[in-house]
Amino acid sequence: MKNCENGNQTKRVIAVCGKGGVGKTAFTAMMTQALMTNEKAGKLIVIDADPAIGLPNTLGIKAERTMGQVRETIIDTAKHGDADDKTKLANLLDYLVLDTLVETDQLAFLAMGRSETQGCYCSVNTLLRCSIELLMQTFDTILIDGEAGLEQINRQVVSEVDDLIILTDTSSRGRETVAHIRKMVTEDGVINCRKLWVVINRVPDGFDETVLIQSIQEMNVPVLGIISLDENIVSYDAVGKPLTELPSDSQAVLGVKAISEKLLNQD
Ligand SMILES: Nc1ncnc2c1ncn2[C@@H]1O[C@H](COP(=O)(O)OP(=O)(O)O)[C@@H](O)[C@H]1O
Ligand SMILES: [Mg+2]
Predict the structure, then answer these.
(1) E strand or H helix that includes residue 255
(2) pTM of the model
(3) pLDDT tens-digit series, residues 213-240
(4) Cα of 60 to ligand 2 centre, how many Å?
(5) Probe ligand 1: pick from 202, 232, 235, max atoms within 8 Å of CB?
(6) Ligand 2 center to 19 CA (angstroms)
(7) What is the pLDDT of residues 153-187, one digit of tens each?
(8) What is the C-alpha separation between 69 and 232, in angstroms, rounded?
(9) Residue 150: burial class (beta carbons within 10 Å; 0-12, 13-18, 19+)
(10) Which listed CATH number (3.40.640.10, 3.40.50.300, 3.30.2290.10, 3.30.1340.30) goes with 5-261?
(11) CA 27 to centroid of ligand 1, rounded, Å
């Protein structure tokens, strides 16, 4: 995040968005692997902001608890608890958030999950977002797997992002989503971001991407990189093998590595 310095390590919040099925979760998993092996990334936390929680499997980790459950506990206590219960919960809040965190030697992981209770609980969201933002302060790189609607990230995770990556494929619908997300960010101010990028994913062999790149650049959004359609991803996903274990010379892995280096090498 801007202004947040930790030694010579600059804090960086990277969020991935784009239409459903475009490859956000696969990209985030490969990006996680690339960041874990790049010392410039420093201490890494990955946040699954998709209520469907698909990321843990692709990262090869188990997430038993979600922030959605913490949210449920708060709402339930607010509705049914007495003053004593509420005080206890307020004191326990940071612990509950920490308890949701999964930590390995190389990364920390937080799943937002979904909350069953419907309705507008803005104050609960704000309370939890503050806890998450506080937690983020202890990390150098924050990587968020989002969804097409950016509201979820803004409402529940973080209000300011450094690099917002719109993932698209080679379809015209993907391009329309890029235009839509760009408008949400630049005109509607759905989320504050320092830099907006496009990454083109799942590009088949022999596909001429010149026209596509040109049409994206005409929207004034730079193309950060291109990722090939990679049969290894298809076969790993078919059997539920973590994408963090893809061979380092796999086409898509090489594409994502170049993207991660470009991101980490910028100011
Ligand atoms: N570069 C790629 N090459 C081949 N298949 C891919 C690639 N990226 C994603 N996929 C496949 O596309 C499908 C959707 O990917 P996923 O990451 O779940 O999308 P999203 O998170 O955007 O909904 C998955 O079956 C995944 O295996
Ligand atoms: Mg996903």
Answers:
(1) helix 251-265
(2) 0.93
(3) 999 999 999 999 999 999 999 999 999 9
(4) 15
(5) 202
(6) 9
(7) 888 888 899 999 999 999 988 889 999 999 999 99
(8) 35
(9) buried
(10) 3.40.50.300
(11) 8
